[in-house]
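User: Could you walk me through two proteins back to back? I'd like the raw sequence and the structure tokens for each, with a short line separating them so I can tell where one ends and the next begins.

Assistant: Of course. Protein one, sequence then structure:
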Amino acid sequence: MNEHKNILPNDISDEMLLLYSQGKLSAEDTRKVEEAMASSAFIGDAAEGLLEIDNKDGINDIVGDLNKQLKNITQQQKKRLKKHNPLDINWVIIAILVLTIVAVGGYLAVHMLSNK
């Protein structure tokens, strides 16, 4: 499941947060994580969520399940978007050409009638 990108800012990795929640970080890394938590609500919420989990050994399984669910949801949304494509660009071009021809034809007709 390493196909996801690190979405955490400030050079804080998900592994670092996991080790923080387990109390296995060095003092310097703990300080970095706590500073990042103070400066970013996202990191603070992530760390708080990890601290709330009782079974720290099962976190990797939980993350794997969440990634699978997220992947399924995004694939379903992509399929839904493909079914409901907006107007094809060719139809837009054809409509513009038809309207231009009608407008020019109308102008010419009015101009010819006004000259007679």
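----
Protein two, same layout:
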Amino acid sequence: MSTQSDFLVGLAGSVGNMDFETIYETELPRIYNFFRYRVGDDQVAEDLTAETFEKAWRHRERYRADVASFATWLFIIARRLAADHFRKQRPIVALEEVRQLADPQTLEEEAQERAEFKKLSDLLARLAERERELVALKYGAGLTNRAIARISGLSESNVSTILHRLTSHLRAQLENDYE
């Protein structure tokens, strides 16, 4: 998962000399979206995102380029913070808050969308924690299967298989409800 942040770390020659502000601006949306999908609460996602970058800054000297890309290292930190968050409280998936409204819709379209979103939220809430995390990494953070494999410790083919089965299963359940 080579990103602009990895390029910047490489240019700096060492993590101590890197342009952390540029890395922050580059990686912030992906880390934040990971948490939005994972915790379902914008405020908590913001707090966890800030904590991720704070930890990365405080422990930047521990980063080892020979082990993982800088972006992968950030997601490992984020993943651990999400696990800590859920250890403290039961996970509540409130995807309704994550939804971004585009253009104003008719009342019927909005009601239909809310119903579909509610059903998807319910289905995601029933998934095992590992499966919810894979969905958050893939669709929240927009990571590749290869990057998810590095972060999760699973093989790339296993990640691909699990995500394929999950999306097929979710799609089938959604379609069955509307038939």
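Residues 156-177 form the longest helix (22 residues).

Let me know if you want the two compared in more detail.
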